[in-house]
Amino acid sequence: MLLTLVIVALAVQELGPSTTLWWIAVAAVVLGGARYLRMRHLTTEAFIHVKELTKAEQFEAYRAMRRKYFIAMRDFRRKRPLGRPIDEGGMHPPTLIRVASPRQYVKLQVGPLPWPRLQDIRSVTVRWTPLVPSPNASFFEQLTEAVAHFLCVSPGAVIAHHPDLYRKRITFVLR
Question: Residue 143: which of 130, 157, 129, 126 has the closest Cα?
Fold first, then answer.
């Protein structure tokens, strides 16, 4: 809307050419930043609803612990290239708490609106981790209920569309 007004003002030549360019740039940056922050907030809210089912935080902690272990072993082997290490963690291996990035596990598709609302969400794509033991009908039912709770609709209003077991993701679409 604001961008349209600026373009009309430029066509009528009420504003100078340099000020119009700055207004267009400022409007684009403000709208883009507002949309990014809103989408980030909605994605985080959706992730909070499904994170226990997808086991995202446990998987991120596992990946970080493995990375830390391999880096430590690589450094140890560089210092002493022959022989095997004797102490690989003992009885109490180090634990690590790692917060998962919501954007890796939840994707929202909304219309081309500058400020998307919860009602404007067209679909929600959820990706689960390998720590989920073979997803079955009850897993998909719980995931459907969690997505419906996020969207503030009944579970019957959400359709599980395109379950992809190879890529470990499913898309939910509103009826």
Answer: 126
